[in-house]
Amino acid sequence: MRETPLHHVHRALGAKLVEFGGWHMPVQYGPILDEVRLVREHVGLFDLSHMGRLRITGPEAVSFVDRVATCFCAKIPMGAIRYGLLCREDGNPIDDLLVYRSEDEVFLVVNASNTERDLAWLHEHAADFDVHIENQTDALAMLALQGAGSEATLGPLVQGLDLSSIGYYRFGMGTVCGIPNVRVSRTGYTGEDGFEIYFPAADAERVWGALLEAGKPLKLAPIGLGARDTLRLEAGMALFGHEIDESHNPIEAGLSFGVSFHEDKGDWIGAQALARIKEHPTRALVGITTEGKRVPRQGYALFSGDQRVGEICSGAVSPTLGKHIGTAYLPVSLAQAGETVDMDLRGKRQACVVVDLPFYSRTRK
Amino acid sequence: MRPDDRKYLPSHEWAKIDGDTFVIGISDFAVEELSHGNVDDLVYCDLPEIGRQVVAGETFGEIESVKAVSDLNSPIGGEVVEVNRAIEDHLELLAQDPWGKGWLIRVKPTDKNTDHLLDSEAYEKVVVAAEKE
C-alpha cells in the first residue's frame, strides 16, 4: 500500500487506517457520524494526497483532453474547472475527473484507484497529439477544507490571492503558508463551501499543522474517508465503482452536465455510444431513503412487489437527514420521486422511497 | 487473555455452556473491528426469533455498523430458546460487556460437542493474526 506524506500524522492522531485504492488511508479519527456533522456545521480538514494529479502540457493539450474526456475542454474559461469522465468507445467510463484549465496546461484530478489505468489510457491515445503527460501525484500533497468555516480558516494563510474572489469551480495560484505557486480551488466532494489546495509534498506536515491551528477557533478537525463518503452521498455526488463503473454510463447516472455533444468539440471517444444512450435510456439513477433500521448497501436488490427491479449502488447512515439513504438504478418508469420499492435483506424486505438527488443541498435548504 | 470458560469460532463468536444450553455472543475484538472504538458507529443488530433452528458455523443474524454489515455465525447447532432483545436498543452493551451483558442468543444444542471450536488460546492466535492484517 502507498502512504501519503501525512501517514505518520494520521497514525499519531489515532486514526483507523484502511486500504483504499492502493493507499493506506484514514477512514476515521473518531465516530464517523460526528465527523459528518462537523463538516456540515463547522469545517473539516481532509488529506486527499492519494488522488491522482496529472498535468497535460504541449501545444495540443486542449484538443487531446477534448478527445479523451467527455467535457468540452476548449470551452472551459481560463482559471475554471469542469467535471467530466474518461470513457471507452462503448460509452462506459474508465474514471471521472475534474479538469482545470490554465493558459499553459490542463490539470486533471482523478480517482486514486484509477490513476495507473488512466495514465495508461492517456498515453495510449496521446500518440496522435503533441502533448506531454506528467504524473504529479507523488510530487504534490492535496488537502481539502470543507464547511462554512473554510474561507475563514484558509484566508489568513494565503497571500497574493483573494479567496473571496474565487468563485465555485474556479481556481487561482497563491502563496500559502509562505509556499509560492500553490493551486487553490473552490471545489469539493461534500456539498459544502470549501477549498482544495495543491502544494509540494515536502510541506504537507507543516501546512496540515498550520491549518489545524488556524481553524481551531472555528472547530476545525481532521475528517476521514468514511465521513467523506457519507458527505458526498448526501450531496448526490457519484463515486466511481458505485454509481458509475465499467457497465454504468454517465448519461443514465444523471451526469449529462459533464458530457458535451457540442459540434465544436470534435470527435471524442464514446460520443456516438453516449448519444445513442441519451436517445434511449433504459434505467436511471435515483436516490432512495428508508425509515427502517437496516442501512442500504451496495449490491442489495430492490423489488417492486415480487419483481426484482434494481440494485443499490451506495448506502449510508445520514446524520444530516436523520434516516438511511442510498442510490440505485431503476427502470425509467419507476425512477420517479415518490415511487416505493423494497430493499431485500436475505429474504426480509424493508420499504424504501425514491427521491430526487441530491438529498442535501446547501443552497436549497 | 480472553475468557477461557468458553469456546470460539475463527469469525469471533463465542459459545459458553450454561446448564442445558449455550449462551452465544461476540468477542471484544469483533466489536472493536466493527466500531473502531466508537460505540456510536454501531447501528443495528439483527437477531433471530425464538424457535429458529441454527446450524453450527452458519449465520443466525447480522450486526451493522455505519460502514459495514457483518454476519453473526453460531458456534453451536440447535434451537434458539432466548434472545437478548436489550441489545437492539442498547448496542453499547456490546462495547461495554461483550462477554456478559452483551450476550446475543441462547441455544438448546442438538449436539453438545464443542471439539470443532477454538479454545481461548487458539482464539488468541486468530486475533493476533487478524491484527496484523
The level of helicity of chain B is 10-25%
User: Could you give the count of β-strands of chain B?
Assistant: 9
Briefly note the CATH topology name of the largest domain in chain A: Gyrase A, domain 2
- State the fourth-level CATH superfamily of chain B: RNA polymerase II/Efflux pump adaptor protein, barrel-sandwich hybrid domain
Low-pLDDT stretches of chain A:
none
What fraction strand of chain B?
Answer: 25-35%
Strand line-up across the major sheet of chain A: 10-11-12-13-9-3-14
CA-atom Rg of chain B in angstroms: 14 Å
Coarse structural class of chain B:
alpha+beta
> What proportion of the residues of chain A is helical, as a percent range?
10-25%
Number of domains of chain B: 1
What's the layout of helices and strands?
The complex is a heterodimer of chains A (365) and B (133).
Chain A: H1 7-12, E1 16-20, E2 23-28, H2 32-41, E3 44-47, E4 52-57, H3 61-68, E5 81-87, E6 93-101, E7 106-110, H4 115-126, E8 132-135, E9 140-146, H5 150-154, E10 158-159, E11 171-176, E12 179-185, E13 194-200, H6 204-215, E14 221-222, H7 225-234, H8 271-279, E15 283-290, E16 301-304, E17 307-318, E18 323-331, E19 340-345, E20 348-355
Chain B: E1 7-8, E2 13-18, E3 21-26, H1 28-35, E4 42-46, E5 53-54, E6 59-65, E7 69-73, E8 78-83, H2 86-89, H3 92-96, E9 105-109, H4 120-132
